[in-house]
Design brief:
globular, four-stranded mixed beta sheet, about 5% helix, mainly beta
Length: about 130
Amino acid sequence: MGSGPKRWIADTGSPYDLLGKSEVPQEIWDKRFKIKETMRLNTANGATTVTEGVTMRLDNIGEIIEPMVLDCTPAVVTVGRRCQDHGYEFHWPAYSKDPYFVTPAPERRKIYLRVENHVPYLIDSPSASM
């Protein structure tokens, strides 16, 4: 099991998985890769250029991810890309403190998120991969 973020913001406003440099697990730091096309992202801290990513596994959802590495950002998993491109569902019933993902078929497993200050977090035990 690798070190790294234990909680990830489930973000409908980010089209990408994101990870701050300080949260890249040490065992995969030297395995960063250059992304195919340099990206310019608008963040809460202003515009930033992204050139690197890492490959790691999110154990809770059983998925290999390649978050973009930014100088400073909270760990983020994209909700939109998972739903549109990978077949996930995202549900947050009215007045509920229990939003959840439903994984793609055939498994269709519910993955409950933790809410803190009205922000949904995927709680995970990430492990380095590859």
